[in-house]
Amino acid sequence: MPSDSFIQNRYKSVYWTCCAYFKLLVVSIKLRYLGMSWLQKQVDFNNISDNALGRRVTDPELLAMHEAVRFAARWHFLTLNCLPRSLVLVDMLRGLGMVAVVCIGVAKKSDALLSHAWVEVTLNDMQELIGEPESVEMDFKRL
């Protein structure tokens, strides 16, 4: 028989996935119809620091929330890229009372201009990346 903490953690993951699924739909609609004016209100371009270099979130609960958003995006009927996923994750983290920001970066690879969005959360007065590969800061220049 599973322990109570296992059931509670499983319930949280299912809850977060369902919330993320519907929030992804709302964010996609807002991005499409409200565009840049709405996005500028969501992304704090003045609160960008470089002190997250090399620091990754290790809290299992936060990583589980990140995975719930990724899972919801993967199985969503819309094709969703990193920006809506990051906006939804920040919204969910802020719902827990955490300080989280969406970071946007660009890179030029051969002839293409690439962009990527990721989330940084403040833990113990330090910005930490959540759910990103080690090379994200080296591959993308923050805006």
Q: What does this protein look like?
A:
This protein is α+β, with helices and mostly antiparallel strands. It has one domain. It has helices at 4-33, 35-42, 60-74, 82-95, 136-139; strands at 100-109, 112-123, 126-129, 141-142. The longest helix has 30 residues, at 4-33. The model has no long low-confidence stretch (mean pLDDT 82).
Question: What features would you highlight for this structure?
Answer:
5 helices, alpha+beta, 50% helix, 4-stranded antiparallel beta sheet, 143 residues, 4 strands
Structure summarized in a few sentences:
This protein is an alpha+beta fold and 143 residues long.
Mean pLDDT: 82
Question: What shape does the CA trace take?
Answer: globular
Query: What kind of sheet is the major sheet?
Result: 4 strands, antiparallel
The number of helical elements comes to 5
**Ends: how far apart?**
50 Å
Order of helices and strands: HHHHEEEHE
What's the SSE blueprint?
Elements: H1 4-33, H2 35-42, H3 60-74, H4 82-95, E1 100-109, E2 112-123, E3 126-129, H5 136-139, E4 141-142
Antiparallel strand pairs: 1-2, 1-4, 2-3
Helix pairs in contact: 1-2, 1-3, 1-4, 3-4
